[in-house]
Amino acid sequence: MKKINIGLLGWGTVGTGVVKILQSNSALIARRLGASLFIKRIADLDLERDRGIKVDRKILTRDARDVINDPGIDIVVELIGGYEPAKTYVLESLEAGKRVVTANKALLARDGDTIFEAAQRAGLEIGFEASVGGGIPIIRSLSEGFVGNRIQSILGIINGTANYILSRMSEEGEEFVTILKGAQKKGYVEADPTIDVEGIDTAHKLAILIRLAFGTKIKLKAIYTEGITRITPLDLAFANEFGYRVKLLAIAKRDKAGIEARVHPTMLPQNSLLAGVRDVFNAIYVTGDAMGPMMLYGQGAGMMPTASAVVGDVVEIARSLLGGGAGSKPTYLASKGLKVKDMEELVGQYYLRFWVVDRPGVLAQISAILGKHQISIASVIQKGRRVGKAVPIVIMTHEAREGEIRRALEKIDRLQVVRDKTVFVRIENRLN
Ligand code: NDP
Ligand code: HSE
Would the CB of 64 count as within 6 Å of ligand 1? Predict the structure, then answer.
């Protein structure tokens, strides 16, 4: 039986999962592939840590170049993460004639052009299924299954950590910090957790999805990005009362005027499919002109689901290698950026949570300012009475322009009766 040799860069959470799958399912994979996958070398800075698996110590090295420059290695799997040295290693691997598999969304979001061009120039495959949605095959779906569609919109819950935190805060009432620690233990969280909770990881993934779905490049700074750190258990409870769940959503929509590209906490109707996506699960709701709406759902982070996507890429590339690599390779090159719409132009409904002194006339002051900005009120809730003390008041608006909302809140937050910065959350009722 033929043998395909793999070199692994980065033996951390996902790297360990990849080794586990290739060890425990080796016979199954060999039967399906018609060749065996063999881990020839593993590079990591720390070779002593107990990963709970046995490997031949002779294959271990601290120097990634022992892997990249090994002429016997066919496929390099980059699971170090971050920009450097990962970028250099990926480019050097391609230059050395190796196919590459990576889960590194930060790198692809920022340097995708350089990397995909290098792969194209070299005529070599690059697999990055694990970079978005963990174990969910969204990359393959967009580049193969949905390829005949003009994609109109993508709504995604694509950060496992943020979804895990929001679910547990909402359902168990646990503290943010405690939940984050739990997510770190489970291996969901990036080395720098702000990348997850401030929406940056979601923006990285959205940039990759936009490239595939709309064929356009997008700079990270063009994606409006807001994380979940302003959302409190109180907001989650109010959302529940109004029939919504809060999710960190990645949104990309395309029409003749350009694209919307944004990441922010969003209220979704409780009975929608996306609202039911809990814990570390991710879901991507894609609408295409031919297929209509389609949702992919699965575990979006963690050792084994992510490793499953990495191994899927390795097997696909191995198949191509076995066939002489003659088939056409998907191109991930993108055209110059389409116009990205300004957030100020966005029209939608909003949840506004004020923290104000409980005194007659306060609501009148707030609604007068909202009225001046053409913001009409759909409903209001004030919980409890604490005369002369601060209380939360929640207003749900009818459709309003975001620019007007922002200007109205600037004025409201300067009122003497307002005790804290107003929290506002966008509501997404139209899911197509
Ligand atoms: P880890 O931090 O667990 O693993 C990275 C490993 O790379 C560590 O063992 C690290 O060693 C090692 N490393 C660092 N620098 C080098 C180097 N120069 N040469 C060789 N090894 C090096 O990260 P994950 O496994 O969680 O993530 C890997 C990639 O997968 C990242 O791009 C991440 O964004 C992505 N990803 C992760 C998911 C997850 O759920 N964890 C899900 C989807 C994608 P040391 O610890 O000693 O620094
Ligand atoms: N930190 C990421 C997440 C890992 O929580 O979704 C998966 O990309």
Answer: yes
Of the listed ligands, the closest to the CA of 46 is 1
Contacts (Cβ under 8 Å, ≥6 apart) of 173: 233
Nearest Cα residue to atom 36 of ligand 1: 103
Kindly name the residue from 205, 247, 253, 336 that is annotated as catalytic. 205
Question: 266-282 burial by CB neighbour count: b if 16+ within 10 A, else e?
Answer: bbbeeebebbebbbbbb
DSSP string, 151-192: EEEEEEE--HHHHHHHHHHHHH---HHHHHHHHHHTT-S-SS
- Please give the CATH superfamily to which domain 343-427 belongs: ACT domain (3.30.70.260)
Ligand 2, residue 306: give the atom nearest the CA. 7
- Tens of pLDDT, residue by residue over 168-227, are 999 988 899 999 999 999 999 999 999 999 999 999 999 999 999 999 999 999 999 999
Q: What is the pTM of this model?
A: 0.97
Domain ranges of the chain: 3-134+303-322, 143-299, 343-427
58 is catalytic: no
What is the structure's pLDDT at 325? 77
Question: Looking at domain 143-299, which of 3.30.360.10, 1.10.1240.10, 3.40.30.10, 3.40.50.1820 is its CATH number?
Answer: 3.30.360.10
Region 359-388 average pLDDT: 91
- Name which residue sits closest to atom 4 of ligand 2, judged by CA: 301
CB 45 near ligand 1, within 6 Å: yes
**Cα 139 from chain centroid (whole Å):** 12
